């Protein structure tokens, strides 16, 4: 392989990594936005519950709390989808202990978790195999 071919190959790899970094940054920004929205909705639900408690009628807050809770669950699901996309872009998987590992890893170097089938699991999705 000639010098210029190596330079061309290195430049192509650098461009690919830059594109991946840009995409990950965009996804992280979206995650941050969704998490802030979850906090806002939690505050609204909490305020409605407190106001109803003060008024002595907790039933009055039920509709607001239910609507905010449904929105929160949808946002949390979206955050998990975005996190999964980041792992895919980075060619990584997530151990139940929270460690990020290469997609091909069979065991977690932190906790020893054994992976089977190559699937990654996000927190809350199970994915823990019996040892």
TrEMBL record:
Q: Which domain of life is it from?
A: Bacteria
Is-annotated flag, keyword Coiled coil?
Answer: yes
Q: From which residue to which does any coiled coil extend?
A: 65-92
Sorted keywords for this record are: Coiled coil
Q: What is the protein name stated in its UniProt record? A: Zinc ribbon domain-containing protein
This protein's species is: Paenibacillus mucilaginosus 3016
């Amino acid at each position: 392989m000639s010098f210029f071919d190596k330079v061309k190959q290195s430049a192509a790899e650098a461009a690919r990594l830059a594109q991946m970094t840009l995409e990950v940054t965009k996804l992280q920004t979206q995650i941050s936005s969704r998490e802030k929205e979850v906090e806002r909705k939690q505050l609204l639900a909490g305020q409605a519950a407190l106001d109803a408690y003060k008024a002595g009628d907790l039933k009055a807050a039920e509709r607001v709390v239910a609507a905010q809770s449904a929105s929160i669950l949808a946002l949390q699901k979206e955050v998990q989808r975005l996190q999964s996309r980041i792992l895919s872009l980075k060619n990584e998987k997530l151990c139940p202990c929270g460690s990020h590992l290469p997609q091909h890893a069979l065991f977690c170097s932190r906790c020893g978790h054994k992976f089977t089938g190559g699937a990654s699991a996000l927190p809350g999705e199970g994915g823990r195999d019996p040892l």
